[in-house]
Amino acid sequence: MKIYSLIVYFFILLFAPLMLGIINRTKAFFAGRRGAPLLQVYFDIIKLLRKERIYSRTTTTAFLLGPRVTLAALLAALAMIPFGKIPALISFPGDLFLLVYLLGTARFFTVLSAMDTGSSFEGMGSSREVWFSFLAEPALLVAFIALARHSGVLSLSSIYASLDHTLWREEFISLILIALVFSIILLSENSRIPVDDPNTHLELTMIHEVMVLDHGGPDLGLITYSAGLKLALFSIFITALLPWPPVNPWAGSLIAGLSLVVISLGVGIVESSMARLPLRKVTHFLASAILISLVALILSL
Fold first, then answer.
1. Cis (ω within 30 of 0) for the bond into 82?
2. 165 pLDDT tier (thresholds 50, 70, 90)
3. Separation of alpha carbons 278 and 273, rounded Å
4. Which residue in 115, 125, 201, 266 is deepest, having the highest Cβ count within 10 Å?
5. What is the predicted pLDDT for the residue at 125?
6. Digit-coded pLDDT (tens) for 73-128
7. pLDDT per residue over 12-42, tens digit each?
């Protein structure tokens, strides 16, 4: 089964940047524009990786570690995510807690890299990022605990493998609430509307984008690719909840690709149909995810 997991893993590694392209084309469609090619993100990453590295005199090693540690943490986290009946590359009891810590590590080094520049704007974005993650991480962890309660195990592969039609009929409301929590966290953790606007250029309202203003060249390429990986990772949290039948790796890769396309279209539609929330209402939005996850956990008891 590990070879099956490896095939799906590398497929998602290749497919992840395409999700950003699908979102951009969806938003362009709703705006009445043609938009950039679907593969434009791949071209941008390749172009950035070929550029020269230029660093400010005020930065230290922490600035260099940010993009690299973030990418390494996301690659490790993706290896711990199963897709339906196809287990993860790395699986052991309690791996869901390590997954949350890996995501926290990626965020910590992104914030550290932004703070290392000495820019007041990047410090402002870092403080907002930390505050929103303070609300999003408990909701994610409680949602995982609710899933673990349904299956009776603490391994993500075993948890998702237990999500069959019978469990969905018995725990329909709880699982729907968990999917809703994952959807809210996906928008927050990937800096999408209504939490953040990835296309804004107004520094006073930027959160994630202001944190990477001083990154360029290969570092910005790693950050762009990491953004695609993070979007794919949180999308799999949602799509893997469905009671997928046992499939071979090629069919599993096809199903994974189609499900990620659907998630990308959904994110593009959300960003095209609503505006960004004021910062004070973003706090309420993320706090609602904590309450919903707690309700899901209570229903699972």
1. no
2. confident
3. 16
4. 125
5. 83
6. 999 999 999 887 788 999 999 899 999 999 999 999 999 998 998 888 888 888 88
7. 999 999 999 999 999 999 988 888 899 999 9
If you average pLDDT over residues 266-282, what whole number do you get?
A: 89
pLDDT on residue 74: 96
Determine the length of the chain.
Answer: 301
CA distance 272 to 23: 10
- Tokens 């690709």 belong to which residue? 257
Query: If DSSP codes are grouped into helix, strand and coil, which group holds residue 167?
Result: helix
At residue 247, the pLDDT reads 65
Q: Enter the tokens of residue 28.
A: 């362009």
Residue type at 222?
L
